[in-house]
Design a protein that fits this description.
single chain; 395 residues; alpha+beta; 5-stranded antiparallel β-sheet; 4-stranded antiparallel β-sheet; 8 helices; 20 strands; 27% strand; globular
Length: 395
């Protein structure tokens, strides 16, 4: 853009690598990373990795004229990380979901993202979930969607945290595996938890940060349940020990949830069993496999829930793992559904909405290995010498 077209930037003279008369802006982050860019507009769409797909006419209905920053300089984590840049997804008119909605490219002013629980990393990238614009793909979900009220009119998606629980015995779901998994309430002042900007749901923050007033009561309950002190120091443990660690449950003020969502039973993700007075509130389960970060090089696990905030807090990417999180701007809510977050190559149908496909045939997704090949092999027909024993049964 020329200087007469600047939207959220300042006109710059030809210097520092910027084109003459361009609209420049920059951002510096708390941990030291930074970038510098000039404003540009181009036709943008989300599609396959193959650059040739841009010529595929099937993508034309989804291309939008999008304002973005073309980076000329970056530092810190932007140099070393896999991604080449950063894209905000807040409730702001300039973000891609809203631009696509305003230009009629999608029917709903919403998007969803689903992070798989992945221990493997690669500099070449991995399939770690899926992102849906203008709707939500529910094909990999394992529980109904429950909604929390978005208490902010714009900007960050902000939820109201009402209670925190420590559930002994672990468990991956908001629903307990048995009666022995008892949720212990952490005695906190919810008015302090939600001060300042409030508690935001932010995939751009790797870990979860809650108000410092929660620290002492949380540590007391943790010590009672585990017998150990809670700290953010790395520890060595087995996978079995990891799975026995408590699951942290976060109760969020609900947004129009149907308490009869699952017939006579209480739907997974609703608060009826642990807070009968507020059965329509949403429960977000954060198991140890989410909040304990594993270091392959050191073979240690580090707890990544911090109680350091002086105002509000952040429900970060580690808490979002294993959930299909729906950011529904137009209805003022944030939805959570437990999910495998498997990426399915087949596109959802044309009538898909906030709750996923209206109808769809059975589709096979990318296979995931749950049992090793050696464990799945039937060796009962092999003799001591390693050759196959004679058998008349079909193999």
């Amino acid at each position: 853009l020329s200087c007469t077209q600047c939207v959220a930037a300042q006109c710059a003279k030809p210097s520092g690598g910027f084109p003459g008369g361009s609209c420049v802006f920059s951002q510096v982050y708390t941990e030291g990373s930074s970038w510098y860019a000039y404003e540009s507009v181009d036709r943008v769409f989300v599609g396959p990795k193959d650059a040739a797909s841009a010529a595929d006419p099937r993508h034309d209905p989804y291309k939008a004229d999008f304002l973005f920053g073309c980076q000329t300089k970056e530092s810190g984590l932007f140099v070393t990380q896999l991604a080449d840049g950063i894209m905000g997804m807040s409730a702001h008119p300039s973000t891609l979901p809203r631009v696509m909605f305003d230009q009629g490219r999608v029917r709903r002013n919403m998007f969803s993202m689903c992070f798989r629980r992945e221990l493997r990393v690669s500099k070449m990238g991995i399939v770690a979930g899926h992102l849906s614009l203008g709707g939500s793909d529910s094909r990999a979900d394992t529980s109904p969607v429950v909604y929390a009220r978005n208490v902010a009119g714009g900007g960050w998606y902000t939820v109201f945290v009402k209670r925190i629980y420590v559930r002994e015995g672990g468990g991956q779901s908001a629903a307990a595996d048995g009666d022995d998994q008892v949720a212990r309430n952490v005695d906190v002042d919810f008015s302090e938890m939600n001060t300042g900007k409030g508690v935001i749901v932010d995939s751009g923050t790797t870990d979860t940060y809650l108000h410092k007033s929660i620290a002492a009561p949380f540590e007391a309950v943790w010590k009672k349940v585990t017998g150990n002190k809670y700290s953010n120091a790395p520890v060595k443990m087995t996978e079995e020990e990891l799975l026995k660690l408590p699951t942290v449950l976060i109760q969020l003020e609900g947004a129009g949830n149907d308490v009869n969502l699952q017939g006579d039973g209480i739907a997974v993700g609703l608060a009826g069993l642990i807070d009968p007075a507020n059965p329509a509130d949403a429960i977000l389960a954060v198991p140890a496999t989410n909040y304990m970060e594993y270091s392959p090089s050191k073979d240690t696990y580090t707890p990544r829930i911090y109680f350091t905030e002086t105002a509000g807090g952040v429900i970060g990417a580690n808490a979002m793992q294993g959930h299909n999180v729906i950011f529904d701007w137009e209805r003022g809510r944030v939805g959570f559904a437990e999910s495998t977050c498997e990426y399915l190559d087949e596109n959802p149908g044309p009538d898909d909405g906030e709750d996923g496909p209206a109808s769809a045939d059975c589709r096979l997704g990318t296979p995931s290995l749950s049992v090793s090949c050696s464990d799945s092999a039937d060796l009962s027909r092999c003799d001591a010498g390693g050759s196959a024993a004679a058998s008349t049964e079909p193999l």
